[in-house]
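Sequence and fold:
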Amino acid sequence: MFVRTDGKKIRELREAQGLSKKDLARLAKVTQATVARVEDSQQAYPTTVELIGGALGVDPRTLANASKGT
């Protein structure tokens, strides 16, 4: 199962904390390509969204895109 992410929100949170994509990837223990994909509002595993949410200090559920698009 995948979730579609709210890439704009993730990017805004990352930038507000002064983090590069590389920094966020390191903190979340994912690849920089994964951070880029998530910020492009593509599908991600729920575990990936949890890791990124944890690294950003937010509830991972707030990073999911509410729209039902594919």
The longest helix spans residues 46-56. The two ends are 13 Å apart (CA to CA).
